[in-house]
Design goal:
By secondary structure, this protein is α/β, with parallel strands linked by helices. About 40% of the residues lie in helices and about 20% in strands. The chain is built from 18 helices and 16 strands. An eight-stranded parallel barrel has the order 1-2-3-4-5-6-7-8, surrounded by nine helices. Strand 11 and strand 12 form a beta hairpin. Helix 5 packs parallel to helix 7 and helix 8 runs parallel beside helix 9. It is elongated, with a radius of gyration of 28 Å.
């Protein structure tokens, strides 16, 4: 029997730090970019496009710091453009900046759509070909590995395919290692991509063919996969699909699909398990909320809410999951809601270290209280800590820790241009002792949070570790306008773990108090369990 053929490798080229950074609302400092580069190296991508060294001081600073990163897997790439039409490659400032970045590999972008050449650049078509060939040859002669990004290639193929292909030929003549076909406007369709990749592959069999897709038609991932199927061996994209306008091809979806569903090799098995961690790190550094519904790496990607679904997944996960979440470093979650049945309760109980059977009366009691409270507006999908406390109360494991005697909050209107100021007074009872204290904060909830922890800190010193990391208020559906109920969801952290709690009331401060109280009780409960 002949040995099994090895999967065809596909190079991963990440451009989060350059193209992804052009996304609206995304801003990364130099230190942020260095952290992302380290993580991408851990993940195992082959190339990290660090930025355009000639465009801004921040990218220059990044490239200067790259040698100190000690990267083991990835090559950092400097990005730039072909030389200016009014000068030569030898005298072009942009190409000089690329060399000063001192990366082994460089990528240069050039026009391959005739309309861009004549309209944007305003130069003869032949001059554009010279710029491509001479720029690549200049960098190649200085011992750089060069990739040529053919900007607007697929649009060029629609309008004047022979000129678009001639642009690629010019880059090949200059000595490019690879030709990257760009769907810059993001308007191509998968079968169009496949057809045009096949043409390029036939004309340049000795070169690496890459693809760089944008997501304006929500087809960047599909187009990239179609390209690989047709012969592409380098995929460019960004983590989480960040990028200008509608974003770039999402590597977090492309990588596992290529490897687990199409039979190509992108990452080693252990590195693939870092995919979810890597995606969430980028969101954290960008100070943006993670996209919970993202395929593969989103918090909801392997979450199950319906009771029938949960029961089926308990028997065989493949019934409602297209692959095991552990392969990409994610995890299965059973959402506790009024749609869930006993299977969800039992699973969450096991997760919390509580052994229950379907016949236990506590299970029915928990389910009944859950349905009743969700009928009142409570929601536990993002408030697992509140649900764990509810579950323990239903089983008779009540941990009060402290009782509220009362609180009062006063809000002050600050002078124009100054931050709002509020003062909260809190009275709590711990055992037979009562504590009465006050604190100020920027807004009533912040003041209440500070006062509560100040009152309890002498009894429970480890509360100093807790900080509120997210706070959401939602007005529940109703016809009462400003008298409607609100639901408050709070996410807290002690630096080791995060937990969510919930409160519901007609008074936003009362709802906030419920969520804050549960947050602190959960911290105390969690520490006691350690």
């Amino acid at each position: 029997m002949s040995p099994q053929a090895q999967p065809t490798p596909v190079e991963l080229y990440d451009t989060t730090l350059r193209d992804g950074a052009q996304a609206e609302g995304l801003s990364l400092s130099v230190e942020d970019k260095l952290k992302v580069a380290r993580q991408l190296d851990r993940l195992g991508v082959h190339y990290i496009e660090g930025g355009w060294p000639g465009s801004n001081p921040r990218d220059r600073e990044f490239f200067a710091a790259v040698p100190g990163l000690g990267l083991k897997q990835a090559q950092v790439v400097a990005f730039g453009s072909t030389h200016h039409a009014n000068t030569s490659a030898e005298n072009d400032a942009n190409l000089a900046e690329l060399l000063s970045a001192q990366t082994q590999t460089v990528t240069i972008v050039g026009k391959s759509w005739l309309r861009h050449v004549t309209t944007q650049l305003g130069i003869p078509p032949q001059r554009n070909l010279e710029m491509i060939r001479d720029s690549v040859a200049f960098l190649k002669a200085r011992e750089r590995q060069v990739y040529f990004d053919a900007e607007h290639f697929f649009d060029g193929m629609k309008e004047d395919p022979e000129y678009a292909l001639t642009c690629l030929a010019a880059a090949a003549e200059g000595g490019a290692r690879g030709l990257v076909l760009c769907d810059t406007n993001g308007g191509s369709l998968p079968w169009q991509v496949a057809e045009r990749v096949a043409v390029v592959k036939e004309r340049h069999p000795g070169l690496v063919i890459g693809i760089h897709c944008h997501n304006d038609g929500e087809l960047a991932v599909a187009n990239s996969l179609a390209g690989v199927e047709a012969g592409v061996r380098q995929v460019q994209g960004t983590l989480c699909g960040f990028g200008e306008r509608c974003g770039n091809a999402n590597l977090c979806s492309i990588i596992p699909t290529l490897q687990f569903k199409m039979g190509f090799h992108c990452l080693d098995e252990e590195r693939m398990k870092l995919l979810t961690e890597t995606a969430r790190l980028v969101y954290e550094l960008a100070n943006l909320p993670p996209q919970r519904f993202a395929p593969y790496v989103g918090q909801s990607a392997f979450s199950h809410k319906g009771g029938l679904h949960i029961s089926a997944v308990e028997k065989d996960p493949a019934l409602y999951e297209h692959l095991p979440p552990e392969l990409v470093g994610n995890q299965r979650r059973y959402l506790v809601s009024d749609l869930a049945g006993k299977a969800a309760i039992l699973q969450r109980a096991r997760q919390f270290g509580l052994e229950l059977s379907p016949e236990d009366p506590e299970v029915q009691a928990i389910l009944q209280e859950l349905k009743a409270r969700e009928g009142e507006g409570y929601q536990y999908e993002g408030a697992e800590a509140s649900f764990e406390l509810l579950m323990n109360r239903a089983m008779g494991h009540r941990h009060r820790y402290f009782d509220l005697v009362g609180f009062r909050v006063m809000d002050f209107k600050a002078a124009e241009g100054e931050l709002p100021l509020a003062e909260a007074t809190v009275r709590v009872r711990v055992g037979g002792m009562e504590e009465h204290t006050a604190a100020t904060g920027h807004g009533p909830v912040n003041a209440l949070d500070r006062a509560l922890r100040k009152a309890l800190s002498r009894f429970f010193p480890r509360l100093a570790e807790v900080r509120l990391v997210d706070y959401k208020v939602r007005v529940l559906a109703g016809a009462d306008g400003t008298a409607s109920q609100v639901r408050v969801l709070i996410e807290s952290s002690d630096g080791v773990s995060r937990w969510g709690t919930v409160g519901v009331s007609f008074d936003v401060l009362e709802a906030s108090w419920q969520a804050l109280g549960d947050s602190i009780r959960y911290k105390l409960f969690k520490d006691k369990q350690l």
